[in-house]
Amino acid sequence: MTQTHTVFNQASELVDYDMYLSDPVLNDLIHRHGAAWAAAQLSAYGRFAGSTEGIELARQANDNPPVLHTHDRFGNRIDEVKFHPAYHRLMQAAIDAGIHSMPWATPRPGAHVARAALMYMAFQNEAGHCCPISMTYSVIPALRRQPDLAAQWEKLICSTVYDGSFRPAAAKSGLTVGMGMTEKQGGSDVRANTTRAVPAPTLAAAGTAPGIKPYLLTGHKWFTSAPMSDAFLILAQTEKGVTCFFVPRWRPDGSLNTLRIQRLKDKMGNKSNASSELEFEEALGYIVGDEGRGVATIIEMVNHTRLDCMIGAAALMRQATRQAAHHASGRAAFGKLLIDQPLMASVLADLSLESEAAIRMTMRVAEAYDKSVATADGASNNNSAEAQFKRIASAVSKYWICKRAPMHVAEALECLGGNGYVESGPMPRLFRESPLLGIWEGSGNVICLDVLRAVAKEPETLDAFMAEVEKACGVNRSFDAYVRKLKRYVADLKVKATTADIALSREQGARRLVEQLALALQASLMLQQAHKDVANAFVSSRLGNEGGFAFGSLPSSVKPKTIKTLVDRSR
Ligand SMILES: Cc1cc2nc3c(=O)[nH]c(=O)nc-3n(C[C@H](O)[C@H](O)[C@H](O)COP(=O)(O)OP(=O)(O)OC[C@H]3O[C@@H](n4cnc5c(N)ncnc54)[C@H](O)[C@@H]3O)c2cc1C
Questions:
Q1: How many beta carbons lie within 10 A of that of residue 240, not counting itself?
Q2: Are residues 242 and 350 in the same domain?
Q3: Ligand 1 mean position, distance from CA 182 (Å)
Q4: Residue 571 pLDDT more than 90?
Q5: What is the pLDDT of residues 263-318, one digit of tens each?
Q6: For position 93, which CATH number holds?
Q7: What residues does ligand 1 touch, defined as CB less than 6 Å away?
Q8: Is residue 153 located within the same domain as residue 182?
Q9: Closest ligand 1 atom, CA of 267?
Q10: What residue numbers bound the domain in which 542 lies?
Q11: Reported pTM
Q12: Are 99 and 92 in contact (CB under 8 A)?
């Protein structure tokens, strides 16, 4: 056979690295935020997430998406979704590591931070399975609103045994939990939910306790991810309004609960995860929290999944930067490795800068989750300064990091040239995942309106936020000027809107406000924590008039030495 050519100047696969130890920023944050005790565990999971095996499992789980079986071959309704074994292996690794429960199962200072670092690596490896892991982690604070239910279910939800079998909970050694809010006529506006629930006092709840009140739910959900979860938090209307219910897949008598999976969504990404349309035909559920206060109850869960959206978006940026730098280190053009071409170095440095700011912001918010915990069982102390910071910083950070991710990942993809656009490589999966985190748990506008609401109803949350921002004042003049201007803007906002025009202009300007708050917090954290030149590069490129719009247009004040520092840490 004639040899047509020799393959050369192609980069290699990025495999067999320790995702934790090879990440200097993550290491710094773990030590800074009181989670150094978890280093060995983080490294163990980091080796799995970056291993040839872990990366291959991620590929297989996405190449073989879940399949819905509504009926068995005899025509009985079964509503079962079957997943590829690779998905189960990823779930098992995440649950073994406690990513779904660590802060609740073994509460200690730094637990949310350690768990956030694990989730950061899981998302870099494979985002789809992170959805059920996130919902299982997030359900506990909401479930604790109904102590009798929590007493019955929490132990198995927090178990570090993954049990993917489809059986009643009592027969299982570990459970996962999902969440259903979105209906056809409204997702953001859950007050428009039409699913209704009526009390069913004659139905015995298993091991009946006074706080376990059975209801029957009838209606639908338009998006419910991870439909093979063992139970869900579901919003439904009662006479008193939107109420939260805990709906198990199986009834206490061992029969299948009447949750019907209509079909799975054909999604643009997030392929390994099943997202379904559900119908409830008098499905059994138990009330969680106060009747008519369903939004206030489920928001406990949503706040934690919002943290995971930040973690996920930051993780996509980290992995995209890593892939871009790896490619540029193994590919030459016009006589030099791409990584040594000054303009490519500038692009990689800028991607690295964005990625670093995203994870620093995420981990500061995760720290606030740790520090606002008041009791040994993990319950929140909502009055502390950290809790007030958390309230507004969660929304601001979720908005901004998720907004930046798709642009960032697209630019990183371009660093790989044509190879970046090809399905056999890692970039298309990262890119298709990147807009999703912005949609989940409050899409952009909804989050910005939530920030306005927080400012109007709890202005002390904004004070706590600005106090964190101001910690970095005095070291960078551009930053100080930015903060002075922002403080004037914020002071105006705290004055009650006296006319409809003022209210309108505040709503129209909400994105601008949240963006400025986000940049101020990121810059503050960079100045407090990062290498001085790197922090100054962030301020000059993001807060002043010197930077450009596309990644890679760093101002000339950013010196080659700083660019090299950033590129070195991006690999
Ligand atoms: C892959 C995937 C999985 C999902 N899994 C789940 C799940 O497990 N459980 C679940 O409950 N949901 C799930 N969702 C649904 C998701 O949470 C909703 O799509 C999201 O909350 C937005 O709701 P919506 O689609 O009804 O859009 P809408 O609420 O109609 O919003 C559309 C747009 O209008 C904007 N908007 C809304 N209100 C305002 C306003 N007042 N002012 C200005 N702009 C506004 C929004 O920001 C958005 O950009 C999933 C979605 C996807 C894509």
A1: 11
A2: no
A3: 7
A4: no
A5: 999 999 999 999 999 999 999 999 999 999 999 999 999 999 999 999 999 999 99
A6: 1.10.540
A7: 178-182, 186-189, 223-225, 267, 270, 275, 436, 439-440, 443-446, 449
A8: no
A9: 1
A10: 297-570
A11: 0.97
A12: no
